[in-house]
Amino acid sequence: MLGRGGEAPAHHPPSHLHKNDAHEDDAPLGVVKLISAEGFEFVVDKKAAMVSNTLRNMLTSPGGFSETREGEVRFPEITTSILEKICQYFYWSLHFSRVRIPLGTHLPRHGVGSRVAGKLTDEGVVPRELLQRPPWMGSGSQPAMGTASQGCLFADSFVLFELVVSSGKETAEFPIEPEITLELMMAANYLDT
Amino acid sequence: MGSACSRKRDHLVDEDNLYSARFSKSGSFKWLLYTLPRSGSDVHRKAHGPGPGRCPSLVELCVAKVREDMGRYSDLSLLPRDLSQQVFNELVEWNSLTEELLGAFRNCALQDICLGDYPGVRDAWMEVVASQGQSLLSVDISCSDVTDSGLNQLKDCVNMQSLACNYCDQISDHGLKTLSGLSNVTSLSFKKCAAVTAEGAKAFANLVNLVNLDLERCPKIHGGLVHLKGLRKLEKLNLRYCNGITDSDMKCLSDLTNLRDLQLSCCKISDLGVSYLRGLSKLAYLNLEGCAITAACLEVISGLASLVLLNLSRCGINDEGCENLEGLVKLKVLNLGFNYITDACLVHLKELLDLECLNLDSCKIGDEGLIHLKGLLQLRSLELSDTEVGSNGLRHLSGLRNLQSINLSFTLVKDIGLKKISVLNSLRSLNLDNRQITDNGLASLTCLTGLTHLDLFGARITDAGTNCLKYFKNLQSLEICGGFITDAGVKNIKDLKALTLLNLSQNGSLTDKSLELISGLTALVSLNVSNSRVSNSGLHHLKPLQNLRSLSLESCKVTATEIKKLQLASLPNLVSMRPE
Asked: Omega into B579 within 30° of 0, i.e. cis?
């Protein structure tokens, strides 16, 4: 597996995100980093993360959880593939509920590290669609990459949103692969989502 | 994650459901269960149904996925209990659980096994049911073929709180012995069970924590109630239609002073039997419908000061003794239907100011008596069907502003009387099944715009009268069967989009054009256009009625074959068809 999240500094969000974070008590602005058992980091909109009641409690409890301050939550019992699926569900759920996703307001500039993502794809972890660069980046700009040891994966809202709506249906079914159903169900139960 | 995932017990048994229509099905209707979802899954409705419903949770989506792929799983015992419970419930709800799939739930520590009315349940299932062991809190195997040996497997499930074995005709009094070890049971239901005999009921004596006991329709129960004497926690006892219960059995109930709800409809008891209830001061609900008692026993009943509901329907009571009703000031529901009482009885009701529902169906009452109801301002429902009440009497009801339902079918009320009730703005349900009601009467009711149910079955309403129906936009059910409606009249019905039940039978002039007009009423669940000129060639108009479950076209030019074709091709929810 790729690097452990704890061994190297993870990707730092752009500075404007910190500004947003300053207001997080007022509104679910900004992003939060979800770290899988293997150390992979998924950076998702807080609004998406708060589809999970467990995460919502963590992120909104005043002064309680360290996660609230650090903007990252570790899941030592949730594997990367499951956590990724859960992140996809967060965005699917937002779309389902017709909550407008604030596209482009704080999209991470570093996107998906191609080396990292390529490897992940070889392992069948990341859906091919997730690797598509968002159109706003322009064809000439290469996404900056995290190092392999960082294992930093951005599941940014734009890409995932595309994933959901690309089915062409108003409310596409959320696909669940039979191989992961039980593990996903347990993780979803833990996250209360 | 493991047990950390187990947060809640979602599906506690709803005690009220134990006594609901769910168990009213007899085994002979099991075939229906194969063809219909038990209640439809939330996930299905929410994820695939129309409109912006609530988003299904990921857990719900996973549970639905497990159901779809259940054949892949042979052992779910490593799942947290609340999840395996949800999967189990989902399979049951979708009629997807089979004897083969059940094995995956062995040792899952399930708390609730609700298989009431579920097809195919038999002894072979009980080993897996019993494997839940001390986790098991509630079991429902109603309508199953489980026998004594199957029931006996539950003997070690000592934490059981609720057990329902209604209509289990393979269980004998010998099998009931299993129950004696289940002393934590608080709710027990053995409807129509021949095992409940004087001998079989011995097992009940150990169930000292019993709060609810349902023995409705147990035919051999005579002599068995003696074993209930020590059940001091018993609050709810249902003995409806136990026609073996006699006065001597009633004596055994006299010490059950915690009883709050006692159902004795159609038991063979007399005033003597009722006399044994004298000390049951907590009794709030008493149902004596169809018992051969007289008004003399009202003296005993008048001492039951906590009574909220009293059902004395079909008891053959006359006025003498009815003065004892005066003291029952907490009564909210009083059913005196089908008795010999007259206006003289009604004077004793005038101080029952909390009354919300009063049933005087087929009593010998007339206009004069209704004056005593004038002050019953909490009345929500008043049943006056088949009485001698006429137009004059209705003036006494004009002030009953909370009245939501009134039945004036087969009374002497004429058009002119309806003006008196036209001020009852709370009315939702109005029954005017009465040949003396015409278009003029209906025209005086147009301000009752909140009506949801209007029964004009035998009223002489013509096409002209149907113009008034446009004021009743909220109607959910409508019956106009007086014979005078033509296709032109149905034009005034086609915009009542909330209708779920429409009965236009006996209107011999209706043609296929009416079916075309009705085709936009897509909420319809039940449609009756019998005795009309509707034909096979009009049936295609019904295709949009996707919610239709009952269709009656008797004595029309319609064949069973064509209705069947329509059902197969377009109306999957249709379960009742005439002709068939």
From this structure: yes
